[in-house]
């Protein structure tokens, strides 16, 4: 018999929490609900406390993708930890049960679920979800890096689960990662002999309609992450041609949807991603003030750089 903890980091989440927490209250399994909030200024805490007494508050300035999840993990009583972001919404009442099945059956130490685009998603947001989250489940281990490169460690804490003992064994989430705390942890699990699963049958709605400027900033931060954590590429290798495959897939998707008027935006958006990533990879050559301005996660530069 497993004890389950569901962990949700929040900040000004009153727009999402009523639907999410009501949905979770109807899930097919029992669990402990932990909310760790970064000093919201709206009704997030009021809403959260109406569903659980395990609500914890940290100063906004202390939020860190890895450190905050580690704090919540150590507070959790469950031996299986499920993570959700505040803007993810399970599509049905059995999604959590489906998600943890690979862990229950000892097929994996960590698992992430499928993410479908929200109803209001742009064509670019919709393609991103369909490209990254297919309808085919899998289990991977470190030896698969020979075929998949760094994508072997692809993972998303927007909807995921871990054996608590597994993340304890690798030292929890690393603090101070600008993005990619989930990939960083999973990579260490794989290197430690663990297995990671993708469960296409466990599904949430979750997508972002990023502007071109936001996509630039997102890829800038990804470049910073790949530089600060260069060991990931050293250990797992690159996915040769992945960027080209994605661009070709996106172009084909636009044609299939007959959204030809989107091709100008397609060119500009992908150009912005490329430039953002290259600048992020070379962030050490930039003045800190400029790097912070280009970044999506601006508080990281004050605390960690």
Task: Please tag this protein with its features.
single chain; Spore Coat Polysaccharide Biosynthesis Protein SpsA, Chain A; 9-stranded mixed β-sheet; 2 domains; alpha/beta; 305 residues
Give a structural overview.
- With 305 residues, the protein is α/β, with parallel strands linked by helices.
- It has two domains: 4-205, Spore Coat Polysaccharide Biosynthesis Protein SpsA, Chain A; 212-304, no CATH class.
- Helices cover 45% and strands 16% of the residues.
- The chain is built from 15 helices and nine strands.
- It has helices spanning 17-25, 44-49, 65-75, 95-99, 101-104, 123-132, 145-148, 164-169, 181-191, 212-228, 231-236, 242-256, 263-281, 288-294, 299-304, and strands spanning 4-10, 32-37, 55-57, 80-84, 89-90, 110-116, 138-140, 159-163, 196-205.
- Strands 1, 2, 3, 4, 5, 6, 7, 8 and 9 form a nine-stranded mixed β-sheet that branches.
- Helix 10 packs parallel to helix 13 (263-281).
- The radius of gyration is 19 Å and the shape is globular.
- The mean pLDDT is 96.
